């Protein structure tokens, strides 16, 4: 479709900044996971509407050993792809390591 999905190779300091830099380098909408952060960047230009996403992570945020308080967010993405390559990304934050909200429904860890 019209969304590039890649591990990622650029790290910037703030949430969404790495996604923005990937868009600037690649020139297309992109979903990355490299930074372990959750963030979104939007841009409209002569080629249309674009978005760049940082996917977040599913790993533990404590007990890493090398980083006491990493600036990471637990999250994941649901990507819907439509005819013609159009897409929608829903970034789902994991709340208090126990739940997320999707389609108006709270999904909790048992």
Descriptive notes:
The protein has 110 residues and is mainly beta. It is built from one helix and eight strands, in the order E-H-E-E-E-E-E-E-E. Strands 1-2-4-3 form a four-stranded mixed beta sheet, covered by helices on one side. A two-stranded antiparallel ribbon has the order 5-6. It has a two-stranded antiparallel sheet with strand order 7-8. Strand 1, helix 1 and strand 2 form a beta-alpha-beta unit. The protein starts with a strand and ends with a strand.
Which descriptors apply to this entry?
two-stranded antiparallel ribbon, 39% strand, flat
What's this, in brief?
By secondary structure, the protein is mostly beta strands. It has 1 helix and 8 strands.
How would you classify the helix and strand content by structural class? Answer: mainly beta
Low-confidence stretches: none
> Approximately what portion of the residues adopt beta-strand conformation?
35-45%
The largest pleated sheet is described as:
4 strands, mixed
Strand order of the largest sheet: 1-2-4-3
Q: Give the rounded overall mean pLDDT.
A: 93
So how many helices? 1
Describe the protein's topology.
Layout lengths: L3 E2 L11 H10 L3 E3 L5 E8 L2 E8 L19 E7 L5 E7 L5 E4 L2 E4 L2
């Amino acid at each position: 479709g019209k969304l590039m999905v890649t591990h990622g190779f650029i790290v910037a300091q703030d949430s969404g900044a790495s996604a923005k830099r990937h868009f600037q380098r690649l020139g297309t909408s992109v979903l990355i996971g490299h930074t372990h952060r959750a963030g979104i960047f939007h841009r409209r230009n002569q080629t249309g509407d674009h978005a760049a996403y940082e996917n977040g992570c599913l790993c533990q945020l404590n007990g890493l050993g090398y980083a006491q308080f990493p600036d990471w967010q637990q999250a994941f993405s649901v990507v819907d792809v439509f005819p013609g390559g159009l897409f929608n990304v829903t970034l789902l934050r994991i709340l208090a390591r126990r739940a997320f909200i999707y389609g108006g429904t709270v999904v909790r860890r048992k």
